[in-house]
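Quick one: structure tokens for this chain, please?
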Amino acid sequence: LASLNSVLLGYDIGIMSGAVLFIKEDLKIHELQEEVPVGSLNLISLVDGVLAGRLSDSIGRKKTMAIASVIFFLGAGVMGLTPNFGILLGGRIVAGIGVGFGLMIAPVYTAELAPAASRGALVSFPETFINLGILLGYIVSYLLSG
């Protein structure tokens, strides 16, 4: 279950590929403004992944994963309600913080709790769930494209 956090990153990647077509039209942005929000999530999640370790050491892995999910959904909500490019980018940054925290802590939490016999298989689940999230994002983009 901890590895399901990885679905957030995959879903965000998949859904953004479909949403960016409408964002460009609705917000009247140019190509650079289209590319920055798409790539910013990965950059922010990389930076915040480093901070997640310190946070989880101080408050615990489960609380950090819960905080990561809440932060991601706040960012997604901001992006969904954005009236302009600046707020869209702010929402992407907030979502990136949540993704970075979740992706860093879920494998650590899983490795700490898993029995030795199944640890390797369980720790590989985040990669699988990233791909599942991408697929879900593409499916939702397709279903909403009409």
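The mean pLDDT is 86.
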